[in-house]
Amino acid sequence: MKHKISKAAAALAVAIAAVFAAPAVASAYTPDTPVPSALVPGVPAPFPVPAGTFVPGETVTFTLTGEGVGPDNLAFVAFAVSSASVDKTATADGGAVATVTLPEDATGSYALTAVSESGASFAFPAVGVAAAAGGDGGGTDDGGAGGPALGNTGFDGDALLGLWVGGGVLVLAGASIAVATSVRRTRRA
């Protein structure tokens, strides 16, 4: 009887560890390469790809997709979603950098990807347009000429804390019932 109870207690401990360890490990991720989440129109911003992504010296094609994307500065024609590409050479450590400059009338969000000759690829998070500092961008009430920055659509672990705690309580309750049932059956036998 003691052997079955110790097995049940060990299973319960593993279940508890799994419930609480997974969110802690997932929230520990921090990207190696910081990139802007919003760009100010007319201001250049570098987008570095981490070292080791590409073969050193190979050609890497950066492609920007979004409203008004064109070949000059990667964005210039308004009201049309399109793409433009530029080729760069991977650095000696296998990284690469592209500089993106949005035009003064940029709106919406933009996607930037990098693909190499060898087929390796890297996709940056979507980038929105930030209002220029020091003014409202034209006297309108729409958040400035560039519009509002891209909203946060990612995972927020703090907001889901109640869900994780509630799920953990349910797992503990189920495990307790299973242990109690096992003990009751063992005593009857």
From TrEMBL:
It comes from the Bacteria. Keywords: Membrane, Signal, Transmembrane, Transmembrane helix. The chain crosses the membrane at residues 161-183. Residues 1-26 form the signal peptide. The keyword Transmembrane helix applies. The keyword Transmembrane applies. This is Sortase. It comes from Microbacterium gawkjiense. The lineage of its organism: Bacteria, Bacillati, Actinomycetota, Actinomycetes, Micrococcales.
